[in-house]
Amino acid sequence: MSNKLRRILKSVTWRITATTTTILIVYFLTGEFKLAGSAALMEVLLKTTIYYLHETVWDKVEVAEKNTNIEKVNCNN
Question: How many domains, in total, are found in the chain?
Fold first, then answer.
């Protein structure tokens, strides 16, 4: 699976979890399902895009790795 496809799938599954939470919270606070649905729709559109862009930026960040290669030294001279 390519990194791009994996990033998209992660975005979708996270959005399902987060959007369900938003619907429940807004409905619990207001008692209005229509308002909860509207808030969820806005959240899906905005946060999915932001998350994808965030992941894309992090994929471009290079982190220096510590060189752990140890050269063998011949001590039998």
Answer: 1
